[in-house]
Design brief:
Helix content is 48%, strand content 9%. By secondary structure, the protein is α/β, with parallel strands linked by helices. The termini are far apart. The relative contact order is 0.12.
Amino acid sequence: MEDFGNIVCSAFIVWFTLVVGLIVLPAMFGISLGITEVYMKVLVKTLEWATLRIQRGSKEQQKPTTLVSNGIILRDDGSMEKEITDLRKGRSKPQINGEFELSDIFYFSKKGFESIVEDEVTHRFTSEELVSWNLLTRSNNNFQYISLRISIIWVLGVFIRYCILLPLRVTLATIGLSWLVIGASLVGLLPNSRVKNWLSELVHLMCYRICARGLSATIYYHNKENRPMKGGICVANHTSPIDIVILANDGCYAMVGQVHGGLLGIIQRAIVKACPHVWFERSEMKDRSLVTKRLRNHVADKTKLPILIFPEGTCVNNTSVMMFKKGSFEIGGTIYPVAIKYDPRFGDAFWNSAKYNMVSYLIRMMTSWAIVCDVWYLPSMTRQEEESAVQFANRVKAAIARQGGLVDLSWDGGLKRAKVKDAYKEEQQKSYSKMIVGDDSN
């Protein structure tokens, strides 16, 4: 029994030494030994081979393939007035302004059926469908052929992901978070000075770089000259909680959020000692004026790190950008837009909080092949004269969507959990009312 214990202890020491020497230390100093690059090349070749093998097998069986829609069904982009006018063109008698026409019902019926079959909102809160199978559990209905070779590769992949990658990534995440708590707590004991700020940024960078290696993250940063500066506000589209790791891997940010308990609360209390993050109590989050005041005070200090905010307020599946909450754009200061686009071939980064809790989601991330994404730093933007906060938010959102190749939607991400607001219904009712009875203001 003692021999077995010695073997286990020796194996753990060897494992830990290799992890620290080959991954942790290089990650802490931003050095790459080329292991991730080799892993990604082998992975890409394997996925390409699997895709070609599946396609070839499907052709040999000569099975008719049924294409599955990966996007929104075709809809008319015209306004309500234009579409209803087109429906009325078939009238045999002259059209009279302000007259109700029975054919108008077809417009509302058409819109209703479109929303039932495939609306623009709910599909943004489910995983993006893949063009080809990536040898993970989630597959595309267009690729149902499985050969013996593919099955063997899939079983081998399961072994690699759950028996090698998962323990490795859990080890790295544990080391990274432990280093963050210990390092930040020690730095927090120092008096406020430039040395303390420098050490705090160093600790945060090291931690997030270790955590990024723990996800086999391959991140491509573009336009680094536009990186957020101190005293500014960084806004980005939101897909996953790991968005923070992706961005903080290239620079430090001040986080904004609610105070939590448990493990997350321990981390929050540790890092706020070393860096001026902005945490709010649950009761304070409801006081918009208090939140805005604290954020303005932070932005006014040009020595503090830029604030990182995700104005959508919820995670979207990285195919679109939904409505930005205007609060982030009422603070003032300079806005630094950032676009994040994940490659779904190697792993699904989207967090569907309605389906997976945080633990289940993290296990999915740590058992995926890798996290590959592009990050674009856009030129800074400021609010123009006579521009409302809503207009400014929409302008920033459009720039992020355009750069990331995402669909720009005006819908509120809050519809993920809430019903459609009465204001949206009333807006449609008023538009149709103006066509029938005219504008009351005239």
